[in-house]
Amino acid sequence: MKRRDALVKELESGGCLPARELASRLGVSKSTVVRDVARLREAGVPIRLDQGGYALEGPDTVKRAIDRALRGRRVLRLEYVGTKGVATVRDVEPSVCIGGRGGHWYLVAWCRLREDVRVFRLDRISWAEVTGERFPEPGRDRLAELAEAAGG
Q1: N or C: which terminal CB in the chain sees fewer CB atoms within 10 Å?
Q2: What are the residues whose beta carbons fall under 8 Å from the beta carbon of 133, sequence distance 6 or more?
């Protein structure tokens, strides 16, 4: 998993990086990079092949927005498409991003719309943006709910 995290970090640095360059930077084979990119895409990380190299989609990808919101304890506004295909815009207080079933990534967060802890599958988040609003540290009760939702 650490290798894939390093791969995403390389792509976050911007630009379009060929598999050969990524392999050199990460100290792995080109085929390992191709395999890791495929697994990351399956997990919902928006990586595209562009001009012979890999790049993250969009100026502020979903994953990047989530990371920024987590680091800054900022409210995250996102559009989530549920299993029935219905999209809703929600403001959430992100807690943790975890890998889970089937290689998918999930965001565990307090959902202001539902006033409850929710688990959002990353590949079902159409877009996300960090708001300027900070949220406080969760209290003990909410921490317990978040831990339970995260499987802990």
Answers
A1: N
A2: 74, 75
Is the model's pLDDT at 60 over the cut of 70? no
**Cβ atoms of 101 and 91 closer than 8 Å:** no
Does 59 have pLDDT greater than 60?
no
Query: Comparing 2-56 with 62-149, is the CATH topology the same?
Result: no
CATH 3.40.50.720 fits domain 62-149: no
Taking every pair of C-alpha atoms in the chain, what is the biggest distance, in angstroms? 49
Residue 103 three-state SS: helix
What value does the mean pLDDT of the chain take?
Answer: 85
d(CA 18, CA 21): 5
Chain center to CA of 59: 14
CATH class of 2-56: mainly alpha
Under DSSP, is residue 15 helix (H, G, I), strand (E, B) or coil?
coil
Query: By C-alpha distance, which of 40, 27, 38 is closest to 1?
Result: 40
